[in-house]
């Protein structure tokens, strides 16, 4: 059985997007990128909303991006090796391999994915993660906190619910990013 891990970049003030909805405010240096690649490679399945899927699909569809450096090749290889489930009411067909589209988030289906998984499952995107939190499915939270105050939009963590966490590990990177890994404490 795999753990369901929510991983996200977040600004110090808790946002995943800047005021315009862009993600480009958090370009990882090699040290952070290698760490994120390890996290991605540890999972056999990724759960995404349509927008997050479209942002990450070039790791399979853009050969120049993948082959740019050894680090980008490793990330692209990890991304391509995982199964992907995209939750979208507007995406008709996936445009990457090992990908299926589901019309809505179904907690029971995700429980089945976790139960049958031989490795961890990653959920990407704060809106989809909020649904997983509400269903009590998230086992671990991994945040990459960037040294920036965005005043942005789309909070990294869900609002309106309480989830108790226990700090398992933290790592400070030379560029000022801090990685925090929390275990969700069972109620």
Description:
The chain is an alpha/beta fold and 187 residues long. The protein has one domain (4-156): Dihydrofolate Reductase, subunit A, CATH 3.40.430. The chain has helices spanning 30-41, 50-56, 58-61, 63-66, 70-81, 107-116, 126-134; strands at residues 4-11, 15-17, 43-49, 83-87, 99-102, 120-124, 140-146, 153-155, 165-172, 178-184. It is globular. The relative contact order is 0.26.
Keywords summarizing the entry:
globular; 8-stranded mixed β-sheet; alpha/beta; Dihydrofolate Reductase, subunit A; 30% strand; 7 helices; two-stranded antiparallel sheet; 187 residues
Level-1 CATH class name:
Alpha Beta
The count of strands amounts to 10
Alpha carbon gyration radius = 16 Å
Identify the CATH architecture: 3-Layer(aba) Sandwich
- Alpha-beta content class: alpha/beta
Q: Predict the CATH topology.
A: Dihydrofolate Reductase, subunit A
Number of helices: 7
- Strand order within the widest beta sheet: 5-4-3-6-1-7-10-9
Element pattern in H and E: EEHEHHHHEEHEHEEEE
* End-to-end Cα distance: 20 Å
Q: Major beta sheet, specifics?
A: 8 strands, mixed
Low-confidence stretches: none
Q: How would you summarize the topology of this molecule?
A:
Layout: E1 4-11, E2 15-17, H1 30-41, E3 43-49, H2 50-56, H3 58-61, H4 63-66, H5 70-81, E4 83-87, E5 99-102, H6 107-116, E6 120-124, H7 126-134, E7 140-146, E8 153-155, E9 165-172, E10 178-184
Parallel strand pairs: 1-6, 1-7, 3-4, 3-6, 4-5
Antiparallel strand pairs: 2-8, 7-10, 9-10
